[in-house]
Specification:
Blueprint: H1 2-9, H2 14-33, H3 38-56, H4 60-78, H5 82-104, H6 121-145, H7 150-168, H8 174-194, H9 200-235
Length: about 240
């Protein structure tokens, strides 16, 4: 445990640590001030910690993610976003264990961060087609279930499944998908909040997710490209 904590705390740049502390602190304060429930506050804070640690390539991302997935599922159920509920309970919860195991076998001993890589063009196209088809099919099912926003909920659910798989496999392209998911999720929870749900913490959480996804997209693309250049030069 001591070694794990040491590795998780190692290698943080100042701006990364400030971003984590500021994002979690602000979202907690605003959620409490808006009268959000304890479920919303804890879910939001652990969710922010999870995505920032994912961007940093730290194993603790999956520990925070486990707590967030369970609590967020309860919130989504109350808001009648059944796609989000099933996504978190049936997919995200078990994937936290899978991700932790896979990442633990591909950690850089120097940086104590997970290795980062990029997909081939064929993989990107296949991912795009799968998300498009899945969104239509799952959206039709959610509409029959009485989902509040079936096709928006469907897209965020299906795209999140794809992004999580890319994340576990350490692909930088996950962040392109997360950006799209976060944009639609911000809209979806804004609509819910505007109806008087009081889920301010959840709305803020997704807004922070979006900002984090943009930052980490740049970070992962840069580091994955650098790794590719090192590999190419090494073969040369």
């Amino acid at each position: 445990m001591r070694e794990f904590l040491k590795n998780e705390l190692a290698g943080w740049k100042r701006w990364e640590a400030v971003w984590l502390a500021a994002a979690a602190g602000v979202i907690a304060l605003l959620s409490v001030s808006w009268g959000d429930t304890w479920l919303g506050v804890v879910s939001s804070v652990t969710g922010v910690a999870s995505v920032v640690c994912t961007g940093k390539g730290k194993l603790s991302a999956y520990l925070f993610g486990l707590v967030n997935s369970v609590l967020y599922a309860l919130i989504a159920w109350q808001a009648a976003y059944y796609g989000e509920t099933m996504l978190n309970l049936l997919y995200y919860v078990p994937m936290q264990f899978v991700g932790f195991f896979v990442w633990s076998r591909h950690m850089n001993e120097g940086t104590h961060e997970v290795e980062k890589r990029r997909m081939r063009a064929g993989g990107r196209l296949l991912t795009l087609l799968a998300v498009a088809a899945g969104t239509v099919l799952y959206g039709l099912l959610l509409r029959q279930m009485g989902d509040a926003m079936p096709f928006v909920d469907s897209f965020t659910t299906v795209a999140s499944v794809a992004a999580m798989l890319l994340s576990v496999r350490m692909f930088a392209e996950q962040w392109w998908v997360w950006v799209a998911v976060d944009v639609f999720s911000v809209y979806m929870w804004y609509v819910d909040f505007a109806k008087g749900s009081g889920n301010m913490g959840t709305l803020l959480m997704w807004a922070v997710y979006l900002g984090n996804a943009v930052i980490m997209l740049v970070k992962w693309e840069r580091e994955a490209r650098a790794k590719e250049r090192e590999t190419t030069e090494g073969k040369g």
